[in-house]
Amino acid sequence: MDAMEPEPLQPEVLDEDGDVDMHAETNASFSWARDAPPVQGAFRLRCGHTYHMTCLRTWFQQKTRCPSCQQEFGKVVGKQPRLGTFSWHCENFTLPGHPDAVKTIVIQFMFPEGIDDEGKSYAGRKPKGYLPCNAQGIILLELFKVAFRRRVMFGMGESMTFSSYRPTFNIHIKTSSSGGETKHGYPDETYFQRSLRELKANGVILLTHLHGDHCYGLFGLLQTAALEGRKDPLLIVGPQGLRTMVETVLLSSGGWYSEESFQINYLEIPNTGTPGGESLVGPFGSGPRGLGFHPDRCRHAAAVQLGVLAGLRIQAVPLVHGLPDWGYVLTEPDRPGKLNAAKALELGIPAKSRMLGQLKQGQTVRLDDGSMVSPAQVLGPTIPGRTVAILQDTSDASAAIEPCRGAACVVHEATFEDGMETEAIGKGHSTSTMAARFAASCQA
Ligand SMILES: [Zn+2]
Ligand SMILES: [Zn+2]
Ligand SMILES: [Zn+2]
């Protein structure tokens, strides 16, 4: 079984089982070619049936079902052309601003010319998009796939540059690998965060490991959120095997219909930590299978950078336990320094002026007399964001020491009482003294 385990941070694998929605999708979506372009003139529907593009186009003007199996493709949720492909592959180069990602995901969109639902003809288009091949890039790739299937990734519009009616981006895509933000390229520090907001994908659940007491509650939570009318997508982050577990349970209880509730996306942190590395799993401890991360392998393992999710910078650190187990270190963004009101008044900014708020947000303001006041003149030193770490179920959290240094709060388990260290380690847990030792080692 081990050799079959997916390595979720490698998009090749994600693509093969990339059907995020299980059987619940009824939206139009077409050929999912990977590297090779689809056969000239032919399109494969998601149900697997292939037709000539021209035949399909005529057919879809009358009916929106597959001519063979009657699967419905007609639920219009966006104006994106019904015929189009989304394919992607990895290339060996690094995007500016993403030195951690040695590869880059290149997405190729392809829309042949056609006629929209209102009967207006549009021009074809073949835009490209670039994402770093790291955790952030793969999260976005997954969300883009869903948006594409929902036909909301593109809209239709008049292009000023090309003076033609054609598919236009609804979601910001990096169409260039370089050139910075103004040229729709990299580097762009806040692109990931902005995209998540655009895709309304800011909800995140972090699961440490798949022992029942740490994740069975998830199903009740999903059910409650759906009943309460949640519509925004949710991202669940956790160890390898997470997706299989969640989908199996949801499928067994009648399936998960994202159109009626919300989209669930997964980020499985591979057992290698960073993609392409060596597996951190090794025989250790006395769990039922003893298949957790091995102390020797994770002692010096680097934290996995998950980027900024729900407004917090998140790092995952491998913890020694009976199953692959991730601790999470969450850091707030840095905040602007304290405003010196007396200094501001002295520079000519009246008390309670709107300008005080603008300065606090980092903007330079212009006074009535034309003089400028910059934030640096009135703000104290930047207040660094606080760090909170959640380290659940572990006998050795060494990999978390550096990321937790100076943390405002560390939650570390202590299942066994003092003096039971041998039993604790044997079961992948800690004593109160071991937890205290960890806190001392990172000065938290
Ligand atoms: Zn079919
Ligand atoms: Zn556990
Ligand atoms: Zn536990």
From TrEMBL:
Q: Does the keyword Zinc-finger apply?
A: yes
Q: Known InterPro entries for this protein?
A: Deltex_C, RibonucZ/Hydroxyglut_hydro, Znf_RING, Znf_RING/FYVE/PHD
Which of UniProt's keywords are assigned here?
Metal-binding, Zinc, Zinc-finger
This protein's record includes keyword Zinc: yes
Query: Which cellular component terms (GO) are annotated to the entry?
Result: nucleus
Q: Which PROSITE patterns match?
A: ZF_RING_2
Residue ranges of every copy of the RING-type domain listed in the record: 47-70
In alphabetical order, the GO MF annotations are:
3'-tRNA processing endoribonuclease activity; zinc ion binding
Gene3D superfamilies found in the cross-reference section: Ribonuclease Z/Hydroxyacylglutathione hydrolase-like, Zinc/RING finger domain, C3HC4 (zinc finger)
Give the family, as the similarity comment puts it.
Belongs to the Deltex family.
The record, for PANTHER family, names:
ZINC PHOSPHODIESTERASE ELAC PROTEIN 1 (PTHR46018)
Official protein name in the record: Rbn protein
